Amino acid sequence: MTEVILCASLDYERLERLMMATVVPRPTVYVTTLGGYLADELNIAPFSAVMAVSNSPPYMLLSINRRADGSRKRTADNILQTGEFVVNVLDSRHIPSAVHSVDSSLTPAERIAATGILPAMSRCVRPPRVSDCEAAIECKLMRHETVGDVEGGSDLFFGQVLCVWANRAVAEHIQGEPNDAPFAGVGSLAFGWYMSMEGLFRVPQVYTRSPTSPLNQIP
Ligand SMILES: Cc1cc2nc3c(=O)[nH]c(=O)nc-3n(C[C@H](O)[C@H](O)[C@H](O)COP(=O)(O)O)c2cc1C
Description:
Elements: H1 12-22, E1 26-27, E2 29-35, E3 41-47, E4 50-55, E5 58-65, H2 74-82, E6 84-89, H3 95-100, H4 108-115, E7 119-120, E8 129-130, E9 135-147, E10 154-166, H5 168-174, E11 187-188, E12 193-196, E13 199-202
Antiparallel strand pairs: 1-11, 2-3, 2-6, 4-5, 5-10, 6-9, 7-8, 9-10, 11-12, 12-13
């Protein structure tokens, strides 16, 4: 380590780059939610600021950045509207389409088409899960916190895990049975790099900035 970077001297753009490049790896997931006037419109978006933060009761924490104009992303609006979300753990096949799907000018239906995912019914919540993911974690919103309500701020969503869809190896593992099957989840690293059981790969993201297409689209 050769340099100390003082955060107080950095603007939003540089702070975001600093945090995303140093806190690695992060999980790579699709969050599925329902929204719209009748709360029946499926939305899907990739996120990496997500973590399991408690085991009993099981809780997930999802952080969603504000857009450049301070408004909430659709996923955040939907979670506040319905109180439910599903965290779908991606594998390496999903990453290119996930990265290229974040164009915020796309409607939810266009985004789903761009990702090529197949929605399936969830068990404990209304938002559908993604059928061919490594795991799908169904969550009920228990607590919402705001860290700043302008560009660079975030909405923090604490969700209680109601059930998890996973493969047989995971089911055997939680019963304490020995299992060395690989788990195909992907870690998001700095500068567009990702890590999986197969190795490292890179899917760079176009770095754009507009009121509705903010810098915080960096994976
Ligand atoms: C791999 C990846 C990870 C991302 N992680 C986050 C994240 O943790 N937080 C965030 O606010 N945006 C993240 N984004 C950007 C959102 O996916 C993007 O802003 C998207 O347009 C939000 O969609 P929505 O408005 O439908 O919720 C990520 C994008 C990619 C490709």
